[in-house]
């Protein structure tokens, strides 16, 4: 039984400190005009232009290193469109607060009932950093939570994953996971939704030109990413072998995802294979972690070692910073995969997993069982 002092310490660390951290972040960002900085400089103006039926997309060959690039996928701009009804300043606050709510709702959807998990998650630099820049990562977490929660429903997981991939293409490996758990039709729906969303660029620019700009963006910021390729680049490994190593690692993770029907490995593959990986992208790892560790355990604290790192931009990732991020989330993924393996072996519903269908870990539990930590 916890002593009174332990309970006070837990409340101070996982309730009071997250609130103080969030309030401080909002105060600092509001004072220096950096709240939702990427939303205000990219998504908000892109959405405004699309709503005016103007072409926001730069032509191939444009210098993208200045950081204010209106090349978000059209569906991402449509998500931002309702916020253009507000003034830019009010919209910055609104998207930040909605994002914070989406982060917490995503944990709720996958069965987290332990308030302490919400507290430590709110302290993740990936969460605080995302609220500071507003890259729509909370919406991705919410959609991924919907994919998992309704993975046995008709069409719903495919539509949710398709929308998530259309907002940020790097999540496409989650389709491999859907197919691996026996939801091939939903994986095809997801691919169809993501592909159809690209047609929204056609009134403004050609698909070839749009893809060229996306490739330019990857080349511009890939070496500064929190990814294996970014780390190897910062270690001065030549581009070709760095890409070969990164792609090989990503393919190995995809193979593991397919063989083990592992959501954790699908998320890891998405992060490894993405041309650009900013700090907030790693928040999506909280979804498979929350599924296997719905109660507080030590692994929830691992991402806290990434405090003090820049979230995004030229020069964001350094060798030491990249190592901290990759090692911390390698630990997180390892815990997830091991727990998934145990769940598949014993069956989450108390029955042994069968080899002829989706693993037991993919079934929806009416009452999520607490983890032993």
Individual helix count: 16
Strand proportion: under 5%
Span of the ends, CA to CA: 16 Å
Which structural class do the helices and strands define? mainly alpha
> What kind of sheet is the major sheet?
none
Number of domains: 1
Shape: globular
Portion of residues in helices? 55-70%
List low-pLDDT spans: 348-373
Let me know the average pLDDT.
88
Tell me the radius of gyration. Answer: 20 Å
Order of helices and strands: HHHHHHHHHHHHHHHH
Number of strands: 0
Secondary structure layout:
Elements: H1 4-32, H2 37-51, H3 74-80, H4 88-109, H5 115-123, H6 125-133, H7 137-149, H8 156-167, H9 174-180, H10 184-198, H11 207-221, H12 228-234, H13 239-260, H14 263-273, H15 286-292, H16 319-346
Helix pairs in contact: 1-5, 2-3, 2-4, 4-6, 4-7, 7-8, 8-10, 9-10, 9-13, 9-14, 12-13, 12-16, 13-14, 14-16
